[in-house]
Amino acid sequence: MIARGSLWLPLAMLLLLAGLSFWIERAVQAPANGSQAAKTDPEGIMENFDALRTDAAGNPQYRLTAKRLRHYSGSKLTEMESPRFARLDEEAGEVSAVSQHATVSPEGDEVNLRGDVSVVRAARPGQSAMTLRTEQLIVFPERDLLRSPGAVSLRDDTLDLRAGAMEYNTRQRVIKLTGRVHARYISGKK
What we know:
Layout: H1 2-28, H2 36-40, E1 44-54, E2 60-71, E3 78-81, E4 84-87, E5 95-98, E6 101-104, E7 111-121, E8 130-140, E9 145-148, E10 152-155, E11 159-163, E12 165-169, E13 174-178, E14 182-185
Antiparallel strand pairs: 1-2, 2-3, 2-4, 3-6, 4-5, 5-7, 6-7, 7-8, 8-9, 8-10, 9-12, 10-11, 11-14, 12-13
């Protein structure tokens, strides 16, 4: 009887250790079912983000700044607070866009600017400064396409325009306006 009891004690200890190690492993692993904590906790946060893209010769092409940038590893989504994007092109002139918030798709092929969006094209010789305002602007950088699904206003020295929605193909330089479109030509003569 004593010999059999001594065999059960090590077996019970092994079972206890196996159960304990299984519990520890489950407690330390990230939840595979995508719990709410895993979806809402960013992988990285950057304050006062500033990035500059240059061409092969080292000439600046684009500058992106944001008050705060958050990247989520689960969805690969990037969110920005107070983003400012500027295309730095001496020939075409500087174009900048600011908004309250922005998200960048996981592949980087879609940027969604939201909240008091303002796009400004700087004045150049023979061309006045132009300002576009809307609440949401979706940018497809690789396709050279801008889309505003809501109301948009466009203004320069000679034109005041409002529309229900807009799509702008920058490669073809074609603006498609939909909804109720109101345009007013402002004469430069006084």
